[in-house]
Amino acid sequence: MKSKKLLFAIQLKDEFAPLKPLIGSHKVDLIGRTENAIKNSSGLYCFRGMASGTYSVAVQARYYCDRIVEVDTRSLDPKLPVVDVFMSPNLIYPFPKRTTHVRGSVRIKGDNDSIVRGARVRVRKNDKEFFTDENGRFIFYFNQKNEDDEEEGTEKIIELLVTKTGFKKKMKSCILKKGETCFVEISLSQ
Q1: pLDDT for 3-60, tens place per residue?
Q2: I need a surface site. Which of 105, 113, 141, 172 has the fewest CB within 10 A?
């Protein structure tokens, strides 16, 4: 039996703990294609026997935000065509104790029952952003390794910028303490 040539492989990595394997269940599929990934013993999702080109890959995982990744196989090293996909933790990710993070929700001002799905929440002066989930919630975590010079309980103020089409943009400040969780509710006006 002739083996089909490897076109590319997807390696999933935990953005919070890149040296540890992804936790929970996950699924990797090509969008609009019938070919399936074959997961090998080292955890790579392999795509074989297809023509070179650009493919859209959908990744779904229980404890991570869903991702869609564009892969242009012509730009990959043919000897090692592996694409690292870093998965961002979602709201049910089991963060270790003493992780510094912000959890919050976005609602419509004056209407406590109305949540805002798909609002873009961004940490100003940082590249972190999150889109609110189906319940209007978001989360940001801050890697411990970047804060080693700070002592437990050290405070800093961060600014969150929230935007959504049809609403006025909103800036919200919160006090972030190393090793603790900051909870914040944000109300948008139309």
Answers
A1: 578 899 999 999 998 888 899 999 999 999 888 899 999 899 999 989 999 999 999 9
A2: 113
Q: How far apart are CA 46 and CA 43, in angstroms?
A: 9
Residues 6+ apart with CB under 8 A from 99: 141, 142, 144, 179, 181
* Domains of the chain, CATH where assigned: 6-87 (2.60.40.1120), 100-188 (2.60.40.1120)
Q: Are 175 and 155 in contact (CB under 8 A)?
A: yes
Q: Are strands 100-108 and 129-131 parallel, antiparallel or unpaired?
A: unpaired
- Decide if pLDDT at 144 tops 80: no
